[in-house]
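Sample entry (102 residues):
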Amino acid sequence: MQIFTAKDAKTHFGAVLDLVQREPVLITRNNRPAGVFVSIEDLEGTYLADLLMEKEAGYDEWVSASTQDALAKHRANPDTGIQAGEIHQLVMQKVRAKIGSK
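Predicted structure, serialized as tokens:
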């Protein structure tokens, strides 16, 4: 495993990305481990890879339809809607449900 300081990793980021395709790369800060870069291929078969790579069938169509629906509702009645805090709560509920179903 190659080791880079955070400063060197920043300066040579392209080289780090190339290297990570061959082996994990440890990043240190103040002489302590701060993180590890690994390729997506190295994560294959893990929960993290599934989370990063998952794209359900029909997702693009669902996003498009949902966006169009939201825009149509807004155009019909622009004074209604939900506050940012409510949106955050709804999104977090969906994320928790998605993670809990794994």
